[in-house]
Each structure stands twice: as structure tokens, then as C-alpha cells.
Amino acid sequence: MERTETGKRVDGRTLRFQHRRPELLAAATEYVLDHGVQELSLRRAAEALGISHATLIRHFHTKDALISEVLEHIRADFEQRLLTEELRTVDSPAELLRAAWEHLCRPREQRQFLVLFELVAVAARSPEHPRSRLVTDWLTVIERELTRYRWPIQTASRTATFILAQVRGLQLDLLTTGDRARVDAAFEMTVSTLMHEYAATVTDR
User: Fold this and answer.
1) pLDDT in tens, 133-142
2) Distance of CA 61 to CAs 21, 50, 115, Å?
3) Residue 4 within any structural domain of the chain
């Protein structure tokens, strides 16, 4: 046991993340990505993270709240990666799409789709589940990137919807079949379709 600044005796594991919540969230995110959500238990998660069950509850309150924050962390992390040199130096929407797709096809990144597909199944059977966030939060990110590349504002929403649907659908295919060449070819068709529309809108301006 250790003591806080007020002299209260607490489990040392509770103190470990007392002022390091971002680090705790990052660790919890990795745990969820590795183990999924179907049988997620706060008690088992806390044990794996090396903290007390009480500490995890103090920070996240419930399993649903933890999952919600994990999803936000995944989205924010990807958005931050869009600002990195790897993706930020591309010169066109087509290059950005290809770079983002390549990034998302890495096994470490594909874990988020496994979690997503689990949550979609849960949301479909639970009317009170905030299912729309599984889509809307990501549409916001995609629309912002499209407009940064001067994609017409009037079609950005439907284009973002198309991109998100294609990426998730093709990732489901890839995770199921492992046929990277075929799925990559399908994604390239997606890029070609989008660039054809983009060229047409630029010409009409």
C-alpha cells in the first residue's frame, strides 16, 4: 500500500495512472484491440493493465463508457496520423486514399475493423446503442480531408459516405478471405471512380 498526498492509504496500482489518464486510455485501447469487446470485462482488463478494478471504474465508470472512449481514441489516433509526414505529403486525393488504405491494411491497424464489426453486431440488436457514432464520427474526418483537397463541398458528404462504405466493406472481405491482390484491385477501382467524378466537377467549375 502507498499513501496519497493527503495521507490516504491506497493500492499502489491505483496511483500508477492517477495523473496519467491518456496513457491509461492508450493501454486500454490496445487491450480492447487485442481482445475485442464481446467478452470484455473491466475486471480482467484492469488485471491485464496492472491496475486495480477500482481504478479502471474510477476513470471509465462502465464497460460501455470505456468502449466509447476507446473508439474515440482510435479515431483521433488515425486523424493524427493524417497529419504525419507519411500521409500529409501526398499531392492529390487519389494519393491520400492509396496511402490511407495501405496504412489501414497493416495487421496492427486491421484490429480496429474487427472491433468495429463486433460493435455493429451489438448495435443492430440494441436500440439504445449509439450506433450512429460508428459512422458519423468517421464521416467528419473524411469530409474534412476531402475539402482540404478542394473536393466540392456540395458532394463531400456523399463522397465520404461512399469512401467509408468501400473501406469497411473491403476490409471485411480482406479479413475474411486474405485475398489482398483482389481486394487491392477493388479499392483501386474505387479510387478511379472517385477521381473520375472529381475530374468532372473540376472541369465544370
Assistant:
1) 788 889 988 9
2) 13, 17, 20
3) no
